[in-house]
Batch of 2 targets.
Target 1
Amino acid sequence: MMQESQDGWKKRWVESKHRPDYGKFQLTAGKFYGDKEKDKGLQTSEDAKFYALSTRFGPFSNENETLVVQFSVKHEQGIDCGGGYVKLFPDTLNQEDMHSESEYYVMFGPDICGFGNNKVQVILRYQGKYHENNKTIKCRINKDTHLYTLIIRPNATYEVKIDNQQVAAGDLEDDWDFLPPRKIKDPYARKPRKWDERLQIEDPEDKKPEDWEDFEYIPDPDAKKPDDWNEEMDGEWEGPLIPNLNYKGQWKPRIIDNPNYQGEWIHPEIDNPKYKPDLTICHYYNISVLGLDLWQVKSGSIFDNFLLTNDEEFAEEVGNKTWGIRKDVETQWRELYEEMEKRKQEEEAEKTKEKEEEREDDIWGIEEEGSEEDSAETPGNDRQMKEDEAESGFLGKNEVRVDEKDEL
């Protein structure tokens, strides 16, 4: 099953109605891309929201088949906390009621929360329980598109790839706690009492020199008991202490290799009677829905190129023809976009600074103008004021009225 997120996606994908405030997806290639049309994907568009979207296909099983889950995701918003993974559901899922507690088979993809907590989740269902992988697989946290691939083989081995490069591989039994361990410590074994695990010991032949002074303070030899000292009343007299000039520190014997060292005692192991191999680990019989069940603080992640197949080579080829073609051009465009945004911010900051400076100049200019006017007022102006009053009186007597108008 291969799905690219192109026009008509709303007919193939179903939005859950389990809660009324789910975030909305939109179809876009984002701010930077390789091809504006071909690189369109499903983008989260609202901050601090849960998302629940799924698409259905004919049910299939990976019994005796390799299962490959592959998709691409671009966190162009610079995600700080949120999921970027997909889930595989059984055919019993009610898509309109899909939510975080809905039963699923596989959860796979990047999960980021904070700078140091970023990893690839690989959670697999087995006998009604969800098991998280024991290995820590670091995901990519930059703004470029990355390709994530999970391979589960019928021989109970797995592989995780990022950008078509292996980042983890091994046995399902070893890296998940599906089954009891093959070996356990022998409950009847005990470490011998005389077992010597000391790598080094103090040299029993080393002796402290007779002239070694290890008292930091000594009684003052020049001190004398006062003549009026009464031992019955004052107690036994003790002279004052002074620093010992010959003090050499606390003596310790030298350290040598232990001739009787036997190494660290290792608890013997035996076969675990509770262990039983299971050849059906991670065999799912009615995989029928792929969903995006997410929480994101900062939206903007773009999902694309979903692929479910049993052919590892085909998956790698599809990855090279989708993500592989766009990655270099997209990176160049992203770097150009970031440079343009940086320049824009610098220009806006410069304009803001200039406006602030102009505002300060205007304020200081008004004050200076007012100061000049104040300083220009002299006794010689009294005559002009009197003339103005006389003219005003003359106009009043002749009943002349002048309409007031605003000057523009």
Note: The radius of gyration is 42 Å.
Target 2
Amino acid sequence: MAKTAESAGLPSTTSDPSLVVDHKTVYFEVEGLVYHVCRYGFETYSLSVFRDMFALPQGSHEESAVEGATRENPIKLPGCTTSEFQSLIQVLYPRQLSGPPTLTKEAWTGVLKVARLWDMPAVAKVAIEKLSTMDLKPVEKIRLGKEYWVPTWLEEGYITLVDDPSMASKDEMETLGWDTIYKIFLASNQVTKRLETDRGRLWDRVGKLYCGYCALAQQGGYHREVSDPQTVCGTCSRIPAESGYGVIVSDPTALSALLPQVTRLN
């Protein structure tokens, strides 16, 4: 009678796949530098690029002939810099238990770039969450939102600049291109006309309301947000619904031509 591991006094093994870690490694080359890393993170988080790459049948059984199996025959990764790749490695294989690593804005931008490049939506989501807590300027939100498919940033950036184009410098504006600059100033002009025409009336704007007295009556136009027209303004102590100025916001219809149709991938 054949002995089982249990009857032989040997420890049993688990078949739970969540407790089994694949330690296969791969060699990648980025900008002439070769990296030897674990395949697990790339296979797990890349929904197509690396998962499909590693699933392809190999034409030879000799290790030296298999791309990525040796330092001499690494898989070359174009479209990525060494700093971007190293930042991604820190995210895929963190050295601490407290969650994602602490990276700079530039590093997280690089992570977002390669996450989109290599179809890693979960990694992109983390990068977007981290970048959203950082000081992204309106122009950065528009540029990054367009480039890496983050519609929330696009909307926030456009609305900020339509409200106040002076929030971006001339050099920053030029990076958007003249077509976008024209649309921003056109929408801003439409909003200004709406404010002049509808002074004292109420209208909506993407869920935010501002005290009409603070924005229109006070010199300089201070925007003080209020929760509803019956709420006392914390700056002027007036109730917008009773002040004669109401609550004002930018006209959302003026923004409609600005916000391109972007597929939400995050």
Note: The radius of gyration is 27 Å.
